[in-house]
């Protein structure tokens, strides 16, 4: 897509058909596509590939140690990519995480999350840590959250949980460093209009005003 002309142009095809994957912009402007599933079998890929934005060509890169989809992918401040959670088959819930180094094209496992989850969200905090929120666990929807420290490779649960369980929600880091989480569905599979804010200094969640409609 050309934002100057508002025109779409076809480009190179991926090496592997996939959906429910993640895509991340690398520091060199290329795009890393990770995991996903090819069809209704819902068996995951462990393959990854990179789109060269200058040539329009896709190239396979390193293979993850664990196949997954419904995961999150976060660009860390050093340019590496943290992939966390997901599922390999639509039933098993993953707590594992691994880091992609774009300079070598290789994946390295890092420590496992405190709680296995998929359908969760993730965002980068102002200190470079990664906040992972909610999702679906082994037996229920989750209200918990945890923080990954790239310097130590350790996950730590937040001081408090959200006021409600939620998955399929959205999450954004605000300019003041706090994180807004909104909408999604709860463990009753009901759409949510509620929202809450994570204070990155205290690790505490506070409810905020409700959206006009459930999303």
What's the count of strands?
A: 16
Distance between the termini: 27 Å
The strand line-up of the biggest sheet is 1-2-3-4
CATH superfamily of the largest domain: Kelch-type beta propeller
Task: Give the structural class.
Answer: mainly beta
Determine Rg (CA atoms, Å).
Answer: 17 Å
* Low-confidence regions: none
The percent range for helix content is under 10%
Q: How many structurally independent domains?
A: 2
How large is the share of residues in beta strands? 25-35%
Mean pLDDT: 97
Question: What's the number of helices?
Answer: 0
How would you describe what is shown here?
This protein folds into 2 domains: 1-110, Kelch-type beta propeller (Neuraminidase, 6 Propeller); 119-215. The model has no long low-confidence stretch (mean pLDDT 97). The chain has strands at 22-25, 31-34, 48-52, 57-60, 72-75, 81-84, 97-101, 106-110, 121-124, 130-133, 145-149, 154-157, 170-173, 179-182, 195-199, 204-208. With 215 residues, the protein is mostly beta strands. It has a 4-stranded antiparallel sheet, with no helix packed on it. A 4-stranded antiparallel sheet has the order 5-6-7-8, with no helix packed on it. It has a 4-stranded antiparallel sheet with strand order 9-10-11-12, with no helix packed on it. Keywords: Kelch repeat, Repeat.
Question: What tags apply to this protein structure?
Answer:
single chain, 215 residues, mainly beta, Neuraminidase, 2 domains, 4-stranded antiparallel sheet, 0% helix, 33% strand, globular, Kelch_1, kelch repeat, Gal_Oxidase_central_sf, Kelch-typ_b-propeller
């Amino acid at each position: 897509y050309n934002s100057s002309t508002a025109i779409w142009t076809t480009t190179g095809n991926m090496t592997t058909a996939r959906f429910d994957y993640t895509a991340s912009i690398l520091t060199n402007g290329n795009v890393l596509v990770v995991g996903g599933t090819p069809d209704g079998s819902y068996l995951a890929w462990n393959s990854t590939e990179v789109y060269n934005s200058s040539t329009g060509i896709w190239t396979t890169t390193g293979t993850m140690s664990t196949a997954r989809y419904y995961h999150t992918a976060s660009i860390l401040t050093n340019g590496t990519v943290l992939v966390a959670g997901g599922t390999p088959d639509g039933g098993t819930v993953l707590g594992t995480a691994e880091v992609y180094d774009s300079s070598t094209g290789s994946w390295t496992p890092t420590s496992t999350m405190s709680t296995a989850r998929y359908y969760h969200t993730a965002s980068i905090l102002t200190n470079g840590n990664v906040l992972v929120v909610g999702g679906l666990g082994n037996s229920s929807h989750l209200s918990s959250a945890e923080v990954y420290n790239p310097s130590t490779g350790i996950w730590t649960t937040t001081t408090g949980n959200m006021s409600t369980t939620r998955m399929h929600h959205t999450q954004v880091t605000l300019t003041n460093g706090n994180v807004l989480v909104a909408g999604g569905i709860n463990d009753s599979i009901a759409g949510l209009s509620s929202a809450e804010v994570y204070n990155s200094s205290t690790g505490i969640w506070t409810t905020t005003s409700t959206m006009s409609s459930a999303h």
